[in-house]
Amino acid sequence: MDVVKTEQVCKEYSFGNQRLVALRDITLTVQAGEFLAIAGPSGSGKSTLLNLIGCLDTPSSGTLTINGQNVSGKTPDDLADLRARSIGFIFQTFNLLPVLTAAENVEYPLLNLKELSKAERRERVDRYLGVVGLSKHAHHRPNELSGGQRQRVAIARALATHPRIVLADEPTANLDHHTGEGILALMKDINREARTTFIFSTHDPKVMALADRLVQISDGVLSA
């Protein structure tokens, strides 16, 4: 089953009288359970593409389908609901809330899922902190954790909503070599065991080597 499908997607930005074409005629299909790397230099358009797939932005033209839903014409509230229920995010800067503990950071996106009780939220938090090996650090705040531990909290947070797709934007960029390898191995294990789809934007050779499929992007144009 396809969880992401783009057909001739373009993205343009306007700055006064100037027009910037960030993506040109992107056609890409991502299957459920795939471990995909989108590689390219800085400014190539890979983060823009990830933002479109993550429903943080919308295409200027073309068709984008996420988890069977065409995002064209959806309201901001519709897109927010689709993100909350279908997509998890892992960022290179972790994006944890500094005043919250690890457990509270993992629970935070679950608050948008009104059908979950407090007990069900707590069960998911405990489960996914265990998956990433941080059960003993549940009550630590981000400034009490190492970079690798903070990235593990971010992974737990991304998984807790039970997303079909996890988007990882340069997830190893701020980690040392050894820690980065451990984080990648963890994500690959989760991909194999849970069949969660992972899509990376990266220029890290380790990510490219581990991917099931690698696509390249340059000047907003995708090539297999």
**N-C termini distance:** 20 Å
Low-pLDDT sequence parts: none
Which assembly state applies to the chains in this document? single chain
Beta strand count = 10
H/E topology pattern: EEEHEEHEHHHEHEHEE
Q: Which overall shape is indicated by the principal axes computed on the Cα atoms?
A: globular
CATH superfamily: P-loop containing nucleotide triphosphate hydrolases
**Count of structural domains:** 1
Top-tier CATH class: Alpha Beta
Query: Strand portion, in percent?
Result: 25-35%
Question: Cα-atom Rg, whole angstroms?
Answer: 17 Å
Rounded average pLDDT: 93
| CATH level 3 topology | Rossmann fold
Query: Main beta sheet, described?
Result: 6 strands, mixed
Helix content: 25-40%
Structural class comes to alpha/beta
**Sequence of strands across the biggest β-sheet:** 6-7-8-3-9-10
Total of DSSP H or I helical runs spanning 4+ residues:
7
The CATH architecture category equals 3-Layer(aba) Sandwich
